[in-house]
Amino acid sequence: MKNNVLEENGHQKGRWGAVIEVLLVSAKLGVTSFGGPIAHLGYFHNEYIRRRKWMDEHSYADLVALCQFLPGPASSQVGIGIGIMRAGLWGGVAAWIGFTLPSVLALLIFAFTLQGMGGGSAPWIHGLKLVAVAIVAHAVWGMGQKLAPDRTRVTMAIIAAAITLLWHSAWSQVTVMILAGIAGWLFFRQPKVSDFPEFRVPISRGLAIACWMVFFGLLLVLPILRESTGFSLLALFESFYRAGSLVFGGGHVVLPLLEREVIPTGWLTQEAFLTGYGATQTVPGPLFTFAAYLGAMIAGGIGAAIATIAIFLPAFLLVIGALPFWNSLRRNSKIQGMLVGVNAAVVGILLAALYDPIWTSTILAPLDFIVAAILFIMLEHWKLPPWLVVVTGALYGLLLT
User: Omega of the bond prior to 256 within 30 degrees of 0, cis?
Assistant: First the structure.
């Protein structure tokens, strides 16, 4: 009996030791991973796969493919998945905290500083808004080349942009993605799907199904509770949970979803929104931590905590829910075709966001256009780091005085 207790204690120490290890390694990545989701995957590969060999190359590629398929922040979901496979569910939580917390704290400081300055009236704020123009244009350009490379998908992207711009509703983007998925299922089914090596995950299918039920249950129940209670913090949670549940294509695509949630409701001005988005480019870690800035501007520290947890919660539920089924799903040609259509629509949704609200509220004079074009070239052709582009935009804003 005594030996069994000692073995169990040793197992517990080993498990929690692995959780702490995941937390420390992910925190290191959280303070050094600049450059956006694609760059994050490179940092992860170097640290988790090449240096520490927590996964083999095939399993890592499979996990990246899964997280690209799911809605949500792909790089954060990859980190959560690696944490789960290394140290169980608590390992996934530790990986998320370590990778996310540094940028959350930085954006909280920025939000409170901005509030102390009067909410965004400083001259350098206009420079940050021009940075947002360049960064989103850069994202549209890169994603368009990859996700809409042919006539059919470019057409789908333009239609998606038109619907999003002309139909101002919280459900417009959801409808666009559903229609795009149907179009992809019809036009992009592949007759043969290549074989993939299987990988093993420490999650039961029962737990996975429960996570799917919670995911869809919250998506359906939260709007009802929001309307029936009128509780402001619940409304905040529901808005950010819905945004985190419906984002396909990575961090930049959350911009139009969040804009539709916080500006028409009067929670935030367009200027403060775009200022925070520009500032988010200066910090390492996931772009979804933009939610921490928005929550802080809306409801202080408690708002930041609620918004951050709400926007990342779907990522957890979806990764846990999908991992045990991914081996069979990714061999399905219909699923692959639907994903092709959704990805093309994502390009169109982001293009619409580039025009409204970013372009319409920022490019106010020919000089604004020239500076935004220079910032875009710095990103696309000079390959300069985003933080340097942000500093350049802020300096231009200061020179306006």
Answer: no
